[in-house]
Amino acid sequence: MYRIYYVLIASLVAILGLGTVYLFNRRAGGYLRIYFAVVIVALIILTLNAQVDTEKLKEITVGGSAMPTNVRIISPFLTIPGSIALIGGALYSWYMTRRDYNLFIAIGALLVASGGGLSRFGMEWALYMLELLGVAVMYIGFIKSEDVIKKRI
């Protein structure tokens, strides 16, 4: 179960970023899709063969800390470009439209990314707190965007 969790959570921000890029430029989205597919397949292979530190699973495990370093080194190749694409796309959308829901999405994604980054530098308390806050802020942005869509219909 932990292996599945790790692959899904490491891939999530990459998929969100990919969707953002694809909305702006289908060709660039296609290239990014190939890159992410290769990295996700490598992550799956490494995760399937990894020795999970079951002692860390007995306590509150932070993110991928129960995975060996050779597996954890792959996730930044998904999360960093995915975060840049998601945050950058939301900021660009805000700049072009001045719709505040895009700022909520950008700020929420930045909070989630910050939590992941801080947890890698020994601030484990930040991961789940900033993820929760970030997802809530992104959700507010999503709800606000629905109001704009409903007005168009």
Concise overview:
The protein is mostly helical and 153 residues long. It has helices at residues 2-24, 26-49, 69-72, 76-97, 100-120, 125-152.
Task: Explain what the structure shows.
By secondary structure, the chain is an all-alpha fold. The chain is 80% helix and 0% strand. Helix 1 runs antiparallel to helix 2 and helix 5 runs antiparallel to helix 6. The chain is globular and about 55 Å long.
Descriptive labels:
80% helix, 153 residues
Structural class: mainly alpha
Helical element count?
A: 6
> What count of domains describes the coordinates?
1
What is the residue-averaged pLDDT?
89
List unreliable stretches of 5+ residues: none
The profile of the biggest β sheet is:
none
Q: Give the end-to-end Cα distance, rounded to a whole number of Å.
A: 42 Å
Shape: globular
Strand content: under 5%
Share of helix, binned = over 70%
Rounded to the nearest angstrom, the radius of gyration is 17 Å
Please count the beta strands (DSSP E, at least 2 residues each): 0
